[in-house]
């Protein structure tokens, strides 16, 4: 029975009740032979969302990516479910901020206190949280058969993309994702010898309802960013569905291997450096 620990299954790419489409939790648990453990901050809410699936291979546990002690406690819960082993981790939880999503640094810098808080929050959740998560769970993964630790990253962390298309948007978020890409590489450097694959996969631009309630001004800024995406990828028609993204990401994860030199890489849901 392959076991999966997936973080951030309360909504979005984890469990997209908003989209009424498959997301990581639904998709992976649809195979009854998989044991799927979802880590969330609010168990009651998530249990209510997944209850209609009526699947006894889903387990929801409580943990906050910002709180080391809470993550430490989840190791015991996971061990109890899987008898001390773990095959796969999908580090999907992430802070996706709205305040800093459209404006360039110079504008964000007009509120230095808020910019500092935003940068620190992003680092704490998207980078430090995942590093602690991996350190805590690698001992279980070493005892498992899957030995794959997937981090959901973002194409926005691509330096060339940012510079070539003047993509100044989402700067603090992009920095956190780029930092985590390096953490993935460092974990790979440490655990290659043990046969564990660490991989950062960008899910593409995915509709999880994040643009549903934009103000007119924000909608205009989104169009500015959209034009840059279009210049980069002329075929780009807008965000893909969670179902399209999750299937693609899982296929890339499944096909990736140390033998094929995928360890520590930063790639997209298309399995390469094409982000859209
Ligand atoms: N959607 C896209 O277009 C896109 C593109 C590139 C990369 N990504 C990446 O894909 C992943 C999922 O994103 P999404 O679009 O599904 O975003 P989302 O709808 O904002 O969901 C984020 C998830 O992360 C969880 N989370 C945030 N902070 C947490 C914390 N401190 N402790 C535990 N869980 C926490 C949230 O839980 P709560 O409900 O408790 O807040 C939620 O389940 C993220 O890593 C994101 O960076 C998304």
TrEMBL record:
Its transmembrane ranges are none
- Species this protein is from: Ophiobolus disseminans
- The superkingdom of the source organism is Eukaryota
Name listed for the protein in its UniProt record = NAD(P)-binding protein
Q: Which InterPro entries match?
A: NAD(P)-bd_dom_sf, SDR_enzymes, SDR_fam
- Which molecular function term from Gene Ontology is one that the record holds? oxidoreductase activity, acting on the CH-OH group of donors, NAD or NADP as acceptor
